[in-house]
Design brief:
The protein is mainly alpha-helical. The protein has 6 helices and no strands. It folds into 2 domains: 57 residues, no CATH class; 140 residues, Tetraspanin (Cd81 Antigen, Extracellular Domain, Chain: A, Orthogonal Bundle), CATH 1.10.1450. Helix content is 64%, strand content 0%. Helix 1 runs antiparallel to helix 2. Belongs to the tetraspanin (TM4SF) family. Regulates the proliferation and migration of oligodendrocytes, a process essential for normal myelination and repair.
């Protein structure tokens, strides 16, 4: 069950990062999610071994299981720390990369498709606001005093993206929306990892109790004089 839960969290984080891949300069930002998936795979196999060792009360098996749980616990703590580090780096990473992606916009290339999709899905326009488009190459080339149609508010019909009608455009910048989305996903993953790490901690205590449990030999002590 824990392996299935971690697999879902890891897959969810990676899938979310793929949506914003063009705006992330540090490609190692998905490292915590990769660690989570690896831990989930190992946990599924080791969980079966741990169950068998517990039912048989094998001290060797329980000792091995304890060592493996300790390794998994350390991996989860590492993923938690990395998640905290990359959560703080998201803001500077997005701000620095997004402007270069927006500057490559020409309405046809892959970057343009990503930008249009981002603005439509997040209901935003520009990096900080729609005025950022006035400094892009696309704006200077077209010279029509307008922004991409993807900046238009969805409740406005016949919007052309003209800057003469700013009330038809989204006023929120995309950088803040992307940062908020990514930080929310990372925070969610960190909470799940912390929860499983706490479970691992108590699991290690339980294994220690089982391992240190005095085995009953099944024999009764003989006292002198009993058979006299």
């Amino acid at each position: 069950a824990a392996a299935a839960g971690l697999s879902y969290v890891g897959g969810y984080v990676i899938n979310t990062y793929k949506s914003y891949n063009n705006f992330l300069q540090d490609k190692y930002a998905v490292l915590p999610a990769v660690i989570i998936l690896c831990v989930a795979v190992v946990m599924f196999v080791i969980g079966l071994i741990g169950c068998c060792a517990t039912f048989r009360e094998s001290r060797v098996g329980l000792g091995l299981f304890l060592a493996i749980i300790l390794v998994i616990f350390i991996a989860e703590i590492s993923a938690f720390v990395l998640g905290f580090v990359y959560r703080e780096k998201v803001k500077s990473d997005v701000q620095g990369t997004m402007r270069s992606v927006f500057d490559k916009y020409d309405g046809k290339n892959p970057e343009s498709t990503v930008v249009d999709y981002l603005q439509e899905q997040l209901h935003c326009c520009g990096v900080k606001n729609y005025s950022d488009w006035t400094t892009t190459t696309w704006f200077n080339v077209t010279r029509n005093n307008s922004v991409p149609v993807s900046c238009c508010r969805q409740d406005v019909k016949n919007c052309t993206g003209s800057l003469d009608q700013p009330q038809d455009l989204e006023t929120r910048g995309c950088a803040a929306e992307v940062e908020l989305g990514l930080q929310s996903v990372i925070s969610y993953a960190m909470l799940v990892i912390l929860g499983f790490a706490i479970v691992k901690f108590f699991a290690m205590l339980s294994v220690c109790v089982l391992t240190c449990k005095r085995e009953d030999t099944g024999y009764q002590p003989l006292y002198s004089g009993v058979f006299a």
